[in-house]
Amino acid sequence: MAGMNRRTFLKTAAACAAMLETRGAFANPLGLPIGLQLYSVRDYLPKDFAGTLKRLGAMGYQDVEAAGFFGHSAAEVKQAMDDAGLRCVSAHYALAQLQPKVDEVIQFAKDAGLSYVICSAPMMRDPSRAKGLSWNATMEAVSLDDWKWNADQFNTIGEKIHAAGIQFGYHNHFVEFHQKEGGVRPYDIILKNTDAKVVTMEMDCGWVVIGGAKPEEYLTKYPKRFSMLHVKEFKLDGWKPGDEPLSTEMNQGSLDYKSIFAAASHASIRHIFVEQEAFPDMEPFAALKLDADWLKAFPG
Asked: Torsions phi, psi of 252, nearest 5?
């Protein structure tokens, strides 16, 4: 340290402090920015888009994933994210939304600065079969042949999105795991029949567990297929398959995230998003602050 004057020392110390503060906002043990799936605040964004984002940024969230833009242009979205200190890295679209307007979605994604476009729900090859069905019933009625058809659509859409410099991916719910025909899970069909170069996987850990599978097994078996994680909690004491799972804050439920993160540390995870489905125990923003703090401090 010979030759370092007081001004240089103070600048160096300030830089180190800033670096440590930034590191503190990253998740352990994966070392990734703290992210939130904005479905968690779906009741607030339509009323105050910019203000809601600023509240999330103040909690320590850095990355977000959209589940709708509520009529805002790409420029408005980007400005609101910048003002909140957030980076919108991804957005969800059901296949029925995405398929007819892929070019429009790609342009919006490019203008808003997104890195990923994620399909959040499949569709039936014959959509008329879904007439009159609830969302859950529709998902249950997707056949294995439908899933194979979906995989083909993902490849086609993925190639087009990849050519535009953006990554396409698929986000699971629970039907992909608990619905089996001949011992075959729909999720296995998606993994087998999609091209890993143009279709990445975003694992929703909570829904994998609700579907009767283990996130660790898939992360270990297919480490290069997964680039994104959703982390959420459910209280599963006394829960039975077919029942609606009870949402709760991170570390207040039944999922074993030490085991999940241990497996994820050997996969290709680049982004991690908290998602809380409902808030039966406390005010939503208080809950989301607890979720962010839990992820920052994990496994403390």
From this structure: -115, 5
